[in-house]
Amino acid sequence: MIFSAESRYNQWVREHYRFLLRSAWALTGSRATAEDVVQDCFTSAWRFRHQLRDQSMARAWLFQIMRRHAFRHFDPAQLQAQPLDESNEESINHHDALDAQLDVVKALGRIAPIHREVLVLYYFDDMTTALMAEALDIAPGTVLSRLARARDALKTALQEPARAAVPRHDDSSSAPAAASVIPLRKRTP
Q: Could you say which of 73, 104, 137 is where a domain stops?
């Protein structure tokens, strides 16, 4: 069966839109900006689709493109941290069981985007470290060290919810306090 280019494009969007939107929203902190970023991502990706040789790597390849578009929306000063839109709270069901998740979402908004992206990819998008390395164009060992730093940054953000300053993206923040927090665990299917 032969599919038109339009139907292939639509299938591609259906398969990857939610993942890219969730990731872009986590990076930019704004749903509106994330939607623009994802649209730009699909436009660029479709234009250069011939460069994707292995379809099994489409998700990582699209993430790379989306990430580049997302970081173009930041001023250099914003690369340190970008609070999430308050509208993010409206989209979350406010039952008591979700309070801890809401705290995590708010804390993610207080950490640097470089930390936020690895946590979102690993815990929310269930990417393996190998796929993350491919998507971020870094070594697998660097993924692991960024994850460790990101967990520390998130732990600090969860312990200090009213804190105005955020850790710099060069990871020069001090050691986190000893208060207990809910540990992140990788979801299982």
A: 73
Predicted model pTM? 0.51
Q: Quick one: pLDDT band at residue 80, thresholds 50, 70, 90?
A: low
Whether 150 contacts 111, CB under 8 Å: yes
Domain end point (choices 20, 50, 73): 73
In angstroms, the CA 176 to CA 156 distance is: 5
177-187 burial, b at 16+ Cβ within 10 Å, e below that, comes to eeeebeebeee
Nearest to 88 by CA among 29, 36, 171: 29
pLDDT band at 3 (very low <50, low <70, confident <90, very high): low
Residues 49, 114, single domain; the answer is no
Is the domain of 132 the same as that of 160?
Answer: yes
Cβ atoms of 62 and 23 closer than 8 Å: no
Higher per-residue confidence, 22 vs 26: 22
